[in-house]
Hints:
The protein is α/β, with parallel strands linked by helices. The protein folds into two domains: about 1-120, Response regulator (Rossmann fold); about 130-225, Winged helix-like DNA-binding domain superfamily/Winged helix DNA-binding domain (Arc Repressor Mutant, subunit A, Orthogonal Bundle), CATH 1.10.10. It is about 40% helix and about 20% strand. It has helices spanning about 10-20, 35-40, 60-65, 85-90, 105-120, 155-165, 175-185, 190-205, and strands spanning about 1-5, 25-30, 45-50, 75-80, 95-100, 130-135, 135-140, 145, 150, 175, 215-220, 220-225. Strands 2-1-3-4-5 form a five-stranded parallel sheet, with helices on both faces. It has a four-stranded antiparallel sheet with strand order 6-7-8-9, covered by helices on one side. α2 (about 35-40) runs parallel beside α3 (about 60-65), α4 (about 85-90) runs parallel beside α8 (about 190-205) and α6 (about 155-165) crosses α8 (about 190-205).
Amino acid sequence: MKILLIEDDREIREMLHTYLMTENFEVVCAADGEKACEYFNTDSYSIILLDLMIPKITGMDVMKYIRQKSTVPIIIISAKDSDSDKTLGLGLGADDYITKPFSLTEVMARIKANIRRNTEYAAIHPERTKLSWGTLTMNLENHTLTKSGEIIDLTAKEFDILRLLLENPKRVYTKAQIYSQIWNDAYMGDENAVNVHISRLRTKIEHNPRKPQIVITVWGIGYKLGEQK
């Protein structure tokens, strides 16, 4: 599996590169946003590790660029640890967020969790290749969503959340359950990740995101799929 590592700090970049190589990953390193976009365009990757504070093109702009073209899992690694920075990063399409300083074992655990989740959704059962709700059609073979025939660009996490609800239309999921199933990690009480992804998903699929009909809030509990009218 190949990782695109985007980090301008040479010491951190070399440390991560060495460690990931020992874990049998192929690692391509970029020290600035310009190189990151160039390397992204010339190869395919299993996952991307992205520092936000990089020169030439900012980490946020690099992520926007990647999300226009791909749903590859993106993990932000940044010294910026405020809730607003995390919310912004996740809102722009990141799948996970790790703050510096970090442990190498934590990075590896997050990498494996995100790759595993992405790989599981790629292993589609042939007898069920599409899910639908109203004008929405989710194609599980090519990992796309269409609304009235037009493609809706979703991040990997947005796609996973919607798929979870479409596959279990009668079930109400708590934020903890959504987090544990989509992020493959223990829920630590941080609601931002789930809230941000639900909000972005609604913006893309709902006719009126302020009055959602597809992803419904069950107050005091969590979320469920709305009833089709």
